Amino acid sequence: MKTLIIYTSKHGSTEKIASYMKDKLQCDTVNLLNHQCPELEDYEQVIIGGSIYYNSINPAITELIEEKLDLLLTKRVALFLVCLMSEESAAEQFNNNYSEQLLNHSTADGFFGGILQQQELNPIEKVVTSFVFKNVNVNDDIYYDEVDRFIEALIIEDKVNS
What we know:
The chain has about 160 residues and is an alpha/beta fold. Helices cover about 45% and strands about 20% of the residues.
């Protein structure tokens, strides 16, 4: 099944995860912050993900979903988020950042943690993150076991539908 991973990665966590999935699934990837999205018509499965910054996924992801929703609903779609907050907060972020239609259509959803790389942040981001995370437990790790479960769910779904 020809698969495309569409993501945005500003500081690297999402890119690490997308690269890991690419190696496991032998698929194409595109970071919308660096490249235009290829024609979705060429793919049977589309995986969409990105990091949460200030309670929102990157607008490039939101815009793509809004523009291509009808087409995405004709494909197998899987969704993921990279979020430093708790699993409960990540679930809330899914509901806030992906449309109900797309969430209901998705064959797999994943929350993969993330790494706060202070050295990659600009001065404003450093101030904001120190304020935002001041009294919050931060998950500062990529959950590769969850990424593997997500990948396995996609592989099983592919076998069932073949």
